[in-house]
Write a structure and sequence with these properties.
By secondary structure, the protein is an alpha/beta fold. It is built from 21 helices and 22 strands. β2 and β3 form a beta hairpin.
Length: 583
């Protein structure tokens, strides 16, 4: 019998700590890194040999902001992430998990926000969801044929709905009773005891509920008073776990509540990560303010990280069906109307259009979308004369206001009108400054959600390309070792999980990639089947880049091809508990 299961020979070895890389040879046995050789070992010592000459050998990447919660249940390979070298995914973000609430409640707080159709998600939950507690969910996951490793937050909206019911949890006048508050604390503590990373909350009001019962109310987490959140934070602080949150974009000062909680004066700091550090077109003050907030929080003994998407924030839309319209009154009015004929009547009403034009020209109000149709390109339309052009120039040619032209096109073509814009991270010099910030985590892919609106499944590769391109241009943003560290060991250490490194004795979650593959355009999107959902979604494809992926020492990708067994048998990914406080 051979001494090792796998030998990876001749690659540039990055251990995930930021230490200098070198040409080395990695031996894997029983799911662990058995040995790292400086001189090439005898290939006959292993059952499988991977020639990594000219390639990088890195720890598997972490994607620490996804919404794979529903997809994980019926398509556990999560192959759209694995094919890009991701070996650990984090679910339960943005107050949304599928742990404690009943099936319909869990579906309704998830589907409109994350734009995965309710008629696909609800049947999945009704068929498979037999758990109502964190321990019950974990029992399911441990028997499930996971592709990548899974780590999870407990979602505050999920928690509130399970304890209070959907109606009461979305009523501004209702606070949890003493008994309900105690039950929420019990469930959160159970989650922390079995290894959940912490709690995710939401203060952004334009994330809305789906379904027929509480349609278009904001997510349950947004109705919680801060004293409720603060009580739950005490448990997180005691266990050394993480609070993930999203401030209210309409009230920038609300971030001070999170700052107060993270500070470690006369107590343990609360690890806090917020969405998001971004260079917004519509509000260029966000980036410097986020940097200042991060500096203040950590200088005052906090433990604070923003989440940062290390690539231009490109958004695609079908007609008006995109969450960006939820952030202002006129857009919200339209999206609240479910019937298409009724919505079209509204869009043609002159009073409504007057209101829309008013919101459109308000450039100083808090915003994520820049509200500039001149910066929105038509990608597809039954009228081919529109394709490739922006709405402003098309409106100008017709002598009409751009808002009226856009609404006319939505009425005429509905979802067949497909368009594109970039809302932020559009200035490369600013982006290069942001990715160096010690107050940010390189994350925020939203993988598994917004299936027709965005695709950042290859987020770690985009980040590595940014750093490699800067090095080749003679203006390095950071070392390549530091870049690998930022999407592997740095995040694993901060979260307190066993991942992100490939030193002797570590988990054998390994990515082998050809850096020549990073020379291509990684921002291109493609369409592919969303397995077991009978849907097409936007994805990424990066041929010639990620050659091999091993999860728990098992081949998940070989010569760029997904292993057929991935997601069908156990032995690949595992639930990784947060068993220590992290850094």
């Amino acid at each position: 019998m051979n001494r090792y299961d796998t030998l990876i020979l001749g690659g540039r070895y990055f251990d995930g700590t930021g230490a200098p890389s070198r040409i080395a040879h990695v031996a894997i046995s029983n799911g662990k890194i058995a040995r790292v050789f400086n001189s090439e070992p005898d290939p006959s010592l292993a059952d499988q040999v991977i020639d990594a000459s000219g390639c990088w050998v890195t720890p598997g990447f972490l994607d620490t902001h996804t919404h794979y919660d529903a997809e994980l249940i019926v398509s556990p390979s999560l192959s759209e992430s694995v094919r890009h070298g991701v070996t650990t995914v984090l679910i339960g973000s943005c107050s949304l998990s599928m742990v404690c609430a009943e099936a319909e409640d869990a579906s309704d707080i998830f589907t409109r926000v994350e734009t995965v159709p309710r008629d696909k998600v609800l049947p999945i939950l009704r068929e498979h969801k037999a758990w109502r507690t964190p321990a019950g969910w974990l029992n399911f996951i441990r028997q499930h044929p996971l592709g990548p490793n899974v780590i999870s937050f407990l979602g505050h909206s999920d928690l509130r709905v399970a304890v209070m019911g959907l109606h009461r949890a979305t009523d501004r006048s209702v606070s949890p009773t003493a008994e309900e508050m105690h039950r929420m604390e019990q469930l959160l503590e159970e989650a922390l005891q079995v290894g959940f990373l912490g709690l995710s909350t939401m203060c952004l009001k334009w994330d809305k509920v789906d379904g027929h019962r509480e349609w278009s109310k904001s997510l349950p987490s947004t109705y919680a008073r801060w004293r409720e959140v603060s009580r739950l934070n005490r448990l997180l602080r005691r266990y050394g776990r993480v609070h993930q949150g999203a401030p209210n974009a309409a009230n920038p000062l609300q971030v001070t509540q999170y700052l107060r909680e993270t500070l470690g004066w006369f107590r343990k700091p609360l690890k806090t990560t917020l969405i998001a550090m971004i260079d917004l077109k519509g509000n260029p003050t966000v980036r410097p303010m986020a940097n200042l907030v991060g500096w203040i929080a950590n200088a005052l003994r906090g433990n604070f990280r923003w989440q940062l998407l290390p690539t231009p924030f490109a958004i695609y839309a079908d007609g008006m069906d995109i969450v960006l319209f939820e952030e202002f009154g006129a857009g919200e009015m339209a999206l609240d109307v479910r019937d298409q004929l009724e919505r079209n009547e509204l869009l043609q009403d002159e009073d409504y259009r007057r209101t829309f034009r008013k919101f459109y020209k308000e450039k100083l109000s808090p915003r994520v979308w820049q509200r500039d149709f001149g910066d929105a390109i038509v990608l597809d339309c039954p009228d081919p004369s529109l394709v490739g052009r922006n709405f402003a120039e098309l409106a100008s040619e017709r002598g009409v206001h751009v808002v009226d032209f856009f609404l006319d096109m939505v009425v005429a073509h509905g979802q067949a009108l497909r368009w594109f814009t970039v809302i932020g991270n559009h200035r490369e010099d600013r982006l290069r400054l942001m990715v160096k910030s010690p107050h940010a985590l390189i994350t925020f892919s939203d993988a598994g959600a917004h299936i027709r609106n965005m695709a950042f499944y290859n987020l770690p590769l985009r980040f590595l390309k940014l750093v490699l391109d800067s090095e080749r241009a003679g203006k390095p943003v950071m070392s390549l070792e530091r870049a690998v560290h930022r999407v592997t060991g740095e995040q694993a250490d901060w979260l307190g999980i066993d991942a992100g490194h490939i030193r002797e004795g570590d988990r054998a979650d390994v990515t082998v990639l050809d850096p020549a593959g990073l020379a291509q355009d990684l921002e291109q999107v493609h369409w592919a089947e969303m397995e077991n959902f009978d849907l097409q979604r936007m994805v990424n494809r990066v041929p010639g880049c990620v050659k091999h992926v091993l999860i728990n020492g098992r081949a998940a990708v070989t010569d760029e091809q997904l292993t057929p067994e991935l997601g069908t048998v156990t032995g690949f990914g595992q639930f990784l508990p947060a068993t220590r406080g992290g850094s």
